[in-house]
Amino acid sequence: MMSFKAWLAGLAGPGSPVGWVLRLSMRAQVALVVILVQSAIMLVLAFVFPTLTKRIGVDSAAQQAYGIASMTAYALAPAVVSGDRRTIEGALEIAKQNQDLAFAVVADSAGRILASYQPLPVPVQEILDGHRLTDDGMVSEAVVPILYEGASIGRLYIGLSLRSMYARILRVSLISAAIIIFVMVFGVALVVAGGALTTLPLRRIVATVNTIVPEGLHTRAEVPEQREVRLLAISFNRMLDRIQQQTDALQSEIGERQRAETALQESAQSYMRLFDSVTEAIYVQDAKGRFLNINRGALTMYGYSREEVIGQTPAMLTAPGMNDLDRLAQQLDLARRGLPQSFEWWGRRKNGEVFPKEVSLNRGTYFGQDVILAVARDISVRKKTEEQLRASLQEKEVLLKEIHHRVKNNLQVISSLLYLQSQSAGNEALLGMFQDSQNRIRSMALVHERLYMSTDLNRIDMDGYLRDLVTGLVRSMCPSGSPITVTTSAENLFLNIETAIPCGLIVNELVTNSLKYAFPGGEHGEITVSLAASVFPRYILSVRDTGVGLPEQISVEGTQSLGLHLVSILASQLEGVVETTRSGGTMFTITFRGA
Amino acid sequence: MEDSTIVAWEICDRLIRNGYEVLPPVISGEQAIAAARRGLPDLVIMDIRLRGTMDGIDAVREIQKRTSIPVIYLTGNSDEATTRRVLETHPVANITKPFDEHDLLAAVAQAFNHKSG
Questions:
Q1: In this complex, how many residue pairs, one in chain A and one in chain B, have their CB atoms less than 8 Å apart?
Q2: Alpha helices in A216-310 (DSSP H)
Q3: Nearest to A205, CA basis, from A241, A226, A229
Q4: Within 10 Å of residue A518's Cβ, how many Cβ atoms?
Q5: What is d(CA A252, CA A402) in angstroms, rounded to the nearest whole number?
Q6: What's the pTM?
Q7: C-alpha to C-alpha distance for A395 and A387, rounded to whole angstroms
Q8: A549-562: average pLDDT
Q9: In whole angstroms, what is the distance from residue A317 CA to residue A302 CA?
Q10: Is A581 exposed, middle or buried (0-12, 13-18, 19+ CB in 10 A)?
């Protein structure tokens, strides 16, 4: 069921007459109301006034007829008594004076007509029968008895014509209608003119409003005298003041916003230029790993267009089956927690080519959204170079080892030559010299042997080297066994070949001397060789025996002995200083610069 | 068997001076195999690097197919793979150069003791 409100809304709807009226101007609405009211009044007057006037006219005519009839009957009474027709007709003169007299009939009590006057052709019998006594709208009739001395001696029938009355009514109605029409027209004109006059200030305000658009908000409405409209104009002008203030503030804000927007656009353009100028691939990934944006570097790296990549996941850029995806998931998780991640990854280009890349993951924000910023660098060239370098290095290591091997073999050959030569030596002294030379060569060959066996081609483990060197010396010089105990210590000391060979030769000379001269009686004794680090880069080498001690006249500096002279020369080669202690045997301490 | 005839000469001299009989040294694996078949020595002292296509370990394997002559390797090759191959031929000793006479004679003595024992 339609509600009252809906009914009202329908009544005032756009297609309804009420709606049409509501959309009219105020002037038109007032004029319409005036027309409607006047029309209603006219309708009322058109229907009621003639009827009422007619009724009043008829009643008035009836009373007039009755009055004329009464007066005439009174005058007729003596004439009727006399029976003189002339007198009777003379008495009718009273009635005849009325211009509207339609008929006048005098009858005796028996109903005989005594006299009649009929300007209108009405049959007398009908008058007597009373047929015409009913009002037909044209004649008003009256019947009065003619009394004489209290007795009715006849009847007088008087009829008055209503034509003149109807003519008067019509005249009056026409005048009224003219007046009404005049009033209507005047009223409408008054409404229109008054409305125009009343709404003039309003229209001026409207005109002012219309000028605001072309002329600007500084325009103000003219303030008229009429109180209501004056207040309206003042309010309107105040509103304009307020609007102008607001507009000024708004324009200022718009200006600031435009500047901010321009700055933002420039910033965005700068960002995009920067983003695209980086040769590394940069990807912005959302929480689900989808690409929100990638830079030109990435497009170049993979051969895709930006449209092809946006919205996709890194799977499309990943070489299938070559990466640890579980590990990647962990690293993405760590990166999301703010721990930057860096790793190597196998990528795949659009053409299917697989290549290595270095990827770093960082947490970031992208237009307010938490994202992962991934930066990838194509390391194909670097990997290839690294591979080449590794291969080259390996080749060089192999070559270097081969060189050490050959040097060692050559030293072995030299040693063999000395041995073979020594077999033809004529005496022990000469044989000893050959032996010494072989030992010196051996001390050098051992360094190359160590380097050849070592994985580190730069450093020699001095602990093992000195142990092998000294053990070999003892076996060489005391083939049938020796009562002398030789100990070495150089734990965790590593020297390069330039230092190790002179160092080894020094030890060779000093231990040889001790074995030869410190224990002349074949007694038990000890030889201790130790190498220790001092203040970097200096080292302390000491060779100590518990033998008879170096004679006072022999010193390293002034010696004629080849062995001690070698010690001096080699020590100076190592920027070292030789100190000799003769207490409880002999101790040589060489502090040298090593590397 | 030694690629350097001079070093081989020294070894032979040291062995002879210590009372051993020595066949003339050869310089390739093929020669070593032939010499072993021909001379039937009691001990083979073998370098690993030899001239020709065959190395010392291959030559020993070939020799060991027909005889059970004990072997002493005397070599500068000491890398892991070579050492593993050397051990597969069950040598009496594996002496690295530069060697000293003591190590050499001890190994030879051990070989003969092993053989006689």
A1: 60
A2: 227-277, 296-302, 306-309
A3: A229
A4: 22
A5: 84
A6: 0.54
A7: 12
A8: 85
A9: 7
A10: middle
Q: What is the Cα–Cα distance from A571 to A539, expressed in whole angstroms?
A: 12
Give the torsion sign (CA, A44, A45, A47, A52). Answer: positive
**Is A479 at the interface with chain B, CB within 8 A?**
yes
A77-91, A155-169, A508-522 — which one is most confidently predicted on average?
A508-522
Please, are residues A485 and A546 in contact by the beta-carbon 8 Å criterion?
A: no
Residues in B closer than 8 angstroms to A446, CB to CB, are 98
d(CA B70, CA B57): 13
- Coil/strand/helix, residue A260: helix
Please answer yes or no on whether A449 and B9 come within 8 Å at the CB atom: no
Tally: H helices and E strands in chain A: 16, 16
Do A475 and A446 touch, CB atoms closer than 8 A? no
Between residues A81 and A392, the one the model is more confident about? A392
Is residue A545 helix, strand or coil? Answer: strand
Q: Which of residues A121 and A298 earns the better pLDDT score?
A: A298
Neighbouring C-beta atoms of residue A445, cutoff 10 Å: 24
For chain A, first and last CA: distance in Å?
109
At B1 the pLDDT is 44
A258 or A114: which carries more pLDDT confidence? Answer: A258
pLDDT tens for residues A501-523?
999 999 999 999 999 999 988 88
Handedness of CA A305, A311, A317, A321 (dihedral sign): negative
Task: Please tell me the distance from the alpha carbon of residue A407 to that of residue A509, in angstroms, as a whole number.
Answer: 22
Which of B5, B9, B10 has the highest number of chain A CBs within 10 A, making it the mutation to test binding with A? B10
Do residues A271 and A282 lie in contact, with contact meaning Cβ atoms separated by under 8 Å? no
Burial A309-322 (b: 16+ CB within 10 A, else e): beeeebeebbbeee
**Given a cut of 60, is residue B2 above it in pLDDT?**
no
Q: Are B81 and B43 in contact (CB under 8 A)?
A: no
Question: Which residue type is seen at A215?
Answer: E
Q: Given the DSSP bridges, would you call strands A341-348 and A577-581 parallel, antiparallel or unpaired?
A: unpaired
Which residue bears the tokens 């718009």?
A254
B32, B61 in Cβ contact below 8 A?
A: no
- Cα–Cα distance, B58 to A6 (Å, whole number): 113
The mean pLDDT value of chain A amounts to: 86
Q: What is the rounded CA–CA span in Å between residue A155 and residue A115?
A: 11
Question: B4, B5, B97: best mutation site toward chain A, by most A Cβ within 10 Å?
Answer: B97
Report the alpha-carbon distance of residue A142 to residue A68 in Å, rounded: 9
Looking at this predicted complex, what is its ipTM?
Answer: 0.81
From A486, A489, A479, A581, select the one nearest A524 (Cα to Cα). A486
Chain B CB contacts of A453 under 8 Å are 78-79
Q: What pLDDT sits at residue A576?
A: 93
The mean pLDDT of A146-166, rounded to a whole number, is: 83
- C-alpha distances (whole Å) from A215 to each of A201, A208, A223 are 20, 10, 19
pLDDT at A26: 72
Task: For B77-110, write each residue's pLDDT tens digit.
Answer: 667 888 899 999 999 998 887 788 888 898 999 9
What pLDDT band is residue A401 in, cutting at 50, 70 and 90?
confident
